[in-house]
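Model it.
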Amino acid sequence: MDILKIFTDLTGNQEVIQQLNKSVGGESEKVEKAVQLGIPLLIEALNRNTNNPEGAQALARALEQHQEDKVDDLFSFFSNVDTEDGTKILRHIFSNKNEVVQRNLSRTTGLKQEQIGSLLAQLAPLLLGALGNQKKEQNLDANGISDLTSMLSQGLQQLGSGNLFSLVTKILDANKNGSFIDDLLRMLFKKK
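Modeled.
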């Protein structure tokens, strides 16, 4: 299971982008921009969460529920995605910053906040399914999950400037307070 390949397949697949567009009722270019920023943002948030043992353990337990998810066929996955589960996942990933993240991504992409929430609620289960598959394939424990999210974060950073992940990586914890979300949101508004 190559998670970076899933990300590149997703961002390069106009049929899937159109499918996501229809599900959230947005414009294709805005949805594509939200996907290009949303996946790296979710990965980096998970990476930050797994930098402590409790966060890594919590993610490892959550991934056990997603290790049989079928994520290879993106069109089929998004046709059957459980957005209620996705909403719960977002609350765990972003904690009390979930609404702030959605509101600011809405302003950045031009999508409505509800559309951003719906889109992220579809992307989060995809990411957990892909991570769950990899956890099972490689028999990863909590430390292995932490290493995996670090590797994914670094891999996305190296994918190139065409992806909005460069924005995410530039703003990580700029004020050294341990909260990258505040830094992300501040940087997003500077870029507008």
